[in-house]
Amino acid sequence: MTDPLLEVRDLHVRFPVRRNLLGRTTVENHAVSGVDLALVPGETLALVGESGCGKTTLGRTIVGAQKATSGSVLFEGEDLTAMRDRDRARYRRQIRMVFQDPFSSLNPRFTLRQIIGDPLVATGEARGSELEDRVAEMMRRVGLSPDYMDRYPHAFSGGQRQRVNIARALIVNPRLVVADEPVSALDVSVRAQILNLLRELQSELGLTYLFISHDLSVVENLADRVAVMYFGRIVELASTADLYERPQHPYTEALMSAVPIPDPSLKGRGGRILLPDELPDPSNPPPGCAFARRCRHAVEGRCDTGAIPLEDGVRCVRREELDLQGIVATQS
Amino acid sequence: MTLKESDAPDGMTPSPSEVRRTRASQRQLVWWAFKKHRLALVSAWLLAAMLVVIALCEFVAPFSDRHRDSEYTTAPPQVLKLWDTDGPDGFRFGLHVDGYTSEQDPRSLRITYEADPDDRVDVGLFVKGEEYELFGLIPMDRHLIGPKDVEDPMYLFGTTTDGQDLLSQLVYATRVSASVGIIGVLLAFLLGIVLGAVSGYFGGWIDNVVQRLIELIMSVPSIPLWLGLAAALPATMGPVGRYFIITTILALVAWTGLAREVRGRFLALRSEEFVTSARLDGSSHARVMFRHMLPSFSSHVIAALSLSIPGMILAETALSWLGMGLRPPAVSWGVQLQDASKWSVLSGAPWLLIPGLCVVLVVLAFNFVGDGLRDAADPYKH
């Protein structure tokens, strides 16, 4: 087994909500509570879950846009969370982020040349003709003509902007790319192009991806493994094929049932699992399984007491007893 | 606003107008929009002309600011004529004004002046007059306009109660008043932008400290504050020192409004992903603030800048008019208007209000330009 490129150990991120008169935090929201993850070089790990489950916060903490409350993020064995800003700067180029919103993530006052080249300019790595060459090379790589270099983002469509985003992330030759819902703001037709591009770039450049998404149908074709996140915790972690065929956590099953089935002849099988809207209060997490109150398999007295560990990649006390429904084979 | 473009990476060749639009920098887009605002454009030309007058002030003014003619105090404006028909040899071409005849009222002892068509004063362009140094460097004695004989009276805007040429004084006063406005606003902006940016970008206790400071300054009524600060100046201070101190005082009071505006913009932009991304790209905080964020609203800043110059000019005028700002021999619009503050003087010499007209004109011009810029600043909104 190869050494992991990135390891996340017992990571917690909490946001202060209210402070008392002395400035002490009295109420805080738990965005990420105790996540363990490991990524091996060259793989794609998808992080899925509903809005507000903490997946974006986890991604932002890994790239360093958010401070961890406790726990650690290790890159090739080096603990990034314990580092001071100056030491951490060296790792910024190794771990890059592709943002979700292709509109707000590009500075409207910068040309593509400035946007894509900015990481090189900010660190003083390249300038003049070398900078231009590298920007042009990167633009070609992501499928943009270098002729567009002096244009402003407002002249581009969402898909093209996302290519710019990818180019900016990759221009410093990173090892790991955290892609935060890179296609969720795009049209379905454009989505496939961007996903293909990401896949091609991965094999060409030997990238490792942490792919954050709320859409299981997007993840299925791209990811090697999938981590399902719920309420700041990972509830299931398995290889993509296993997870889609045999989900072991009731939350995963519910997510699977929401994936649209394109084949009308299979309609009606399985059926949608509708979850009640009883989200737990993030400032006051319930004991036991956080999903218990919405889970149709929950048993009183077993699911709502004590901490439930992640065992064999599943965080559920009833994992042995349940027979859950995966996605019906769509390729026939 | 978004152009119709397919997502194909290598699209068809763009049309020339499309290239023009998509490659236009922010500055060009603002200029195109600004040009459509007629009043603003006219005002901009007016201000440009004013800047030229300020720069070439010694050359434009017929007399120096020290010139005093005790023979003609409170003389009315003359009319500049191109030819005359009733001279000794009939029709004669040539720039000239009529001289004065004076008459003293035996009861009030007030001297009144009348134009005297028989006393012709020849006026020329680029005439030799008093010596001066242009830009403080080039010694010259030519004036744009003036009497051919320096001793002759040529007072197109009349004279002051001291017998000074109002037009020359006005030209010199424009330099002082407008530059107080512009320099003061630049100083205020430096303070306002830096403090506003830091306040909005970092937030937290820094924001708190800056905002409370702003509230403190804003809560003090400005006229007594200026007066207090100006009264603290030593009376022996020279006009140049006084000029700079007054400018600084005005700036120290005026930066707060802009700091608020800049802070708000930074607060709004802080959560944009391109800001996060700039940090992750390895930019320092200063680079993120002033290279990435500030350009997003630089046109608004420029608009706010031209909108706040009038306030500064009016403040200087008010302060000087009250006798607490600049003092003679320095001339500013406020100093000039002091002359016009007595009804007994003004009733006999309404031309003393011309500097006031000048204030109104310049203030309006700055406001129109500011308005035009503000409207033009958001080319993406249309």
TrEMBL record, chain A:
- Which molecular function terms from Gene Ontology are attached? ATP binding; ATP hydrolysis activity
Among the GO biological process terms of this entry, one is: transmembrane transport
The organism's superkingdom is given as Bacteria
* Methyltransferase is among the record's keywords: no
UniProt keyword ATP-binding present: yes
Q: Which UniProt keywords apply?
A: ATP-binding, Nucleotide-binding, Transport
What is the similarity comment for this entry? Answer: Belongs to the ABC transporter superfamily.
Name the chain's protein: Peptide/nickel transport system ATP-binding protein
Automatic annotation (TrEMBL), chain B:
Q: According to its UniProt record, where is this protein located?
A: Cell membrane; Membrane
Tell me which residues make up the ABC transmembrane type-1 domain.
Answer: 174-370
- BP GO annotations: transmembrane transport
Major subcellular location class:
membrane
Q: Which domain of life is it from?
A: Bacteria
Q: How does the record classify its membrane topology?
A: Multi-pass membrane protein
Q: Please name the CDD domains in this protein's record.
A: TM_PBP2
Q: Which PANTHER family match?
A: OLIGOPEPTIDE ABC TRANSPORTER, PERMEASE PROTEIN, OPPC IN A BINDING PROTEIN-DEPENDENT TRANSPORT SYSTEM
| Name of the protein this chain belongs to | Peptide/nickel transport system permease protein
| Taxon lineage | Bacteria, Bacillati, Actinomycetota, Actinomycetes, Glycomycetales
